[in-house]
Structures are given as C-alpha cells and as structure tokens.
Amino acid sequence: MSGIGTGYDLYPTTFSPDGRIFQVEYAHKAVENSSTAIGLCCKDGVVFGVEKIILSKMLVEGTNRRVFSVGEHIGIATAGLTADGRRIVQNARQEAKNYENFTSDIIPIHVLTERLSIYVQVFTLYNYIRPFGCSLMVGSYDEEKGPSLYCIEPDSVALGFYGCAIGKGKQEAKTEISKLKLSEMTCKDAVKEIAKILIKTVHDETKEKEMELEMSWICKETKGKHKLVPKKLIEEAVEWVKGQENEED
Amino acid sequence: MELIESPLQDLKKEVSTGTTIIAVQYQDGVIIGADSRTSSGSYAVNRVTDKLTPVHDYIYCLRSGSAADTQIIASYVSYYLNMFSIEEGCLPTVKKAAHMFREFCYQNKQYLLASIIVAGWDEENGGCVYNVPLGGSIIKQPFAIGGSGSSYLYGYCDIHFKENMTEEEAISFVSKGITEAIARDGSSGGICRIATINKDGVKRRTIYGNELQKFWEK
C-alpha cells in the first residue's frame, strides 16, 4: 500500500503525473473500511439498510445512527467516517431549511444533491482541509416523480441509481442487487431483500462480531416522509432470512 | 414669502410610485393593470412609467411605494427565480415568487417602503394573485388592489368583481378601475397599462388617456 502515491499524495492540491488526486482516492479507502449500506428504489418508495457492527454489548440499540432525515421528505444513509457524514447532513439540513424559508416549497432532491456535491467538492481543493471520508446515499419519494436515489462519493461525483451499495461489501451487494427486479418490488419486499443481502452476503460471521440492522424508508405508506422501518418488520425480515437459510441447508 | 414651493424642492422628495395597481384572476389566468405616473412630490417624474414588471416568463409584479425599493426587490427576486428554475428544470410557481417577495419585504421592513402585488400563471394552479403589503405579510386573493389610488376602488371592486370572468370582462373590470382611480387620485395618472397572463404567455396592451372611459363628470 505505501509507496503507491509517494510524493504526490501529501495534499489534495497536487495532481500525480497520471492525473490522479491521491488524497481523494485515500478518502475512498476510508469509505471502503466501513460496514455496508444499501439503498433501493422500489415501485412505491426508497428503502435504506445499514449493517451496523456491534462493537460492545454495552452499547444501546439504535444508538450510533447511520441514517438521517433531512427535512421530512429526504433520507441520507452514510458509510465511512460517521462524524464526516454527520457534518454533511448538518449542511444538508441547513440547505433544506433555507430553501423552504425562502421559497415556501420543500427542496427537490436533485437540487439538494447538487448542493451537497458542490459542498463536498470544496474540500478537495485546499491543502489545509481534508476531503470528507464518507459516501452518502440520498433518497426521496414523490407521488408524481416516483422514487429517487443518489450516491455522493468523496470526490463529489453524484450519480442517480436504481439500487446502490457503499462500504466494505459493496461489490457483493451490488451483484445481488442487480439480480433483483426493482421496478416490480414493493418496499416491504425490499426490506426483506436488503436484510438478506446484509445478513447473508455481506456480513462475515467468522470475522466480525454481531451486527444490528438499521433500516429506514420513504414510501407511499409513510406518505412521502422519511421514517425508520418499524422494528416488527425488521424482525420479521430477519426471521425470513433465517428461514431461507434453513431451506437451503 | 413663497406660498408655492419652488419646483426644485419637489426633486428632493423621494421618488414614489403613488399609484394604482390592480390584479385579478379570470377563467384562464390573470389580468393585471396599472396607471403610469411616478411622482416626486407634485412633479411627475415619469408620466409613462411601466409598473408591470416581469420577474419570470409567466410571473409579473405590480409595484407601489418607493420606486427604488421596489425596483431592487423585483430584480433580486427575478435573479433568484431564474437560478432556481434552472436548477430545478421547471417553471417556478407564482407561490414561490410571492414568498420570495415576502422574505425580502419582511426581513428588511425597517428599511423598505414597498407594497407589491405578485400575479401570474403556473401549470399547477392556473392564474394566481398574491398581495404582499407594507409589513411583509402575504395573502392569496382572487383579486388585489394596491397603491394610493386603490382607496377609491374598494367599493367598486366589491360590487363588480365576479369569479371566473372571461378575458373581456376582466379587462373591462381592470381598466374601468384604473380609470376611476386616475380620475380621483392625484398621485395616479397618465395611461392605463394592462397585461394578460395565461398558458399562452403574456399579452400587453395600453389604453391611452383619451381612450379611457369617461364616468360622471361635469
């Protein structure tokens, strides 16, 4: 690992001879060290799921949040340095509130994403502030426009996705996601599928300790508001996954 | 001792659009109308003013109060509306424009003398009229009147306004109102400028002084 970018990797203000900014690429590595988060656009909404590794039995459930609300209608899931994620979410909340105060309309998700992108990009320009070490998935659901999901990476590129994964297990997760028929799936089904991917495909029981599932959604049922998926549904999904395992065995 | 002020004293007074402005919703959109006098004291600085100011393709504002204040607020709102509509990729609603006017007028109320009517057409809601008077409140109305000449029109409007008028009826409603206010209010005068805003865009017309209807007068 060391020696890859030697000499050109001290500051984001230096390009390497092959045109890369190493500090931003190292920021990506910080995201890849974190546990996986998944976002899916379904027929009637957007569902987020995060694999949270339980570091200690003393930790209260539901603490150490990785999914946040911005306004009432937008959800953001983070992977990477959680503190960095919280900073960007704070900025997002400010933008959303200012927009609403000024225009009396709720901020459209693509406008918020664009502004967050610009915000993240600023931190890749100077040598005295480091880039953000986190990726964000921004999701929302509108009756007319349908579900929307964007992913913002540390290099500030924001792309629209039907289904996306960030973090350690993103490759395996993306493979599983591409097998799903998202346009026909409801949010309730998506909760089960995400649980399955996170528990079976992504989470390595031998290497890591126990995990906690944090899931949230913005869908027709929640009337376009971002809410945590009810605990009962998550428990049912986990049961369903265990049932699937037994079937396969 | 001079009983009449020297004309130069007039120019030291703040330029105001002591005025008459009317906006009314009709079947397909809105009709807006205004007089054309800008005064500085008793001197008519501009007798052919255009108080119908576009802030976006389908949204106009009618300005009364200080000419300088209202011009600058309108240009700020126009700037932000353009930025937002490009960011969002769609035309702004009249509601959005009206709320922006309100933010400027309310947050800076100590410094401003601005009473603005925002009227236009958008796809979601059709024709809309919003009144943003002096203090910076905002209220949606089927018709709104403003300016010094409007005091003489409350009775006229209450009696003659109807919901869902045709374009002709609405233009008659507006032009008669402006004419009457011009006749009675010293700070309103000149010609009557009218614009129709609907899904087909903005159509402007002018009714010259000699074409304005004559009501009861000796």
CATH superfamily membership of chain B = Aminohydrolase, N-terminal nucleophile (Ntn) domain
Arithmetic mean pLDDT of chain A: 93
Low-confidence stretches of chain B: none
Q: What's the average pLDDT of chain B? A: 91
Q: Which percent range describes the beta-strand content of chain A?
A: 15-25%
Largest sheet of chain B: 6 strands, antiparallel
Q: What is the element string of chain A, with H for helices and E for strands?
A: HEEEEHHEEEEHHEEH
**Count of extended strands of chain B:** 13
Provide the low-confidence segments of chain A as ranges.
Answer: none
Helical proportion of chain A?
25-40%
Structural class of chain B: alpha+beta
CATH classification class of chain B? Alpha Beta
Keywords (chain A): Cytoplasm, Nucleus, Proteasome
Family (chain A): Belongs to the peptidase T1A family.
Protein name (chain A): Proteasome subunit alpha type
GO cellular component, one term (chain A): proteasome complex
General description of the model:
The complex is a heterodimer of chains A (about 250) and B (about 220). The longest helix of chain A has 22 residues, at about 80-105. Chain A has helices spanning about 20-30, 80-105, 110-120, 170-180, 185-200, 230-249, and strands at about 35-40, 45-55, 65-70, 75-80, 135-140, 145-150, 160, 165, 210-220, 225-230. Chain A has six helices and ten strands. In chain A, helix 2 (about 80-105) crosses helix 3, helix 4 packs across helix 5 and helix 5 (about 185-200) packs across helix 6 (about 230-249). With about 250 residues, chain A is of the alpha+beta class. In chain A, strands 8-1-2-9-10 form a five-stranded antiparallel β-sheet. In chain A, strands 3-4-5-6-7 form a five-stranded antiparallel β-sheet. The model of chain A has no long low-confidence stretch (mean pLDDT about 95). The model of chain B has no long low-confidence stretch (mean pLDDT about 90). With about 220 residues, chain B is α+β, with helices and mostly antiparallel strands. Chain B has helices spanning about 5-10, 65-90, 95-105, 155-160, 165-185, and strands spanning about 15, 20-25, 30-35, 40, 45, 50-55, 60-65, 115-120, 125-130, 140, 145, 190-200, 200-205. Chain B is built from five helices and 13 strands. In chain B, the strands form three sheets. In chain B, strands 1, 6, 7, 8, 9 and 10 form a six-stranded antiparallel β-sheet that branches. In chain B, strands 11-2-3-12-13 form a five-stranded antiparallel β-sheet, covered by helices on one side. Chain B is about 30% helix and about 35% strand. Chain B is globular and about 55 Å long. In chain B, helix 2 crosses helix 3 (about 95-105). Chain B has one domain (about 15-210): Aminohydrolase, N-terminal nucleophile (Ntn) domain (Glutamine Phosphoribosylpyrophosphate, subunit 1, domain 1, 4-Layer Sandwich), CATH 3.60.20. The interface between A and B is small, with 9 and 11 residues.
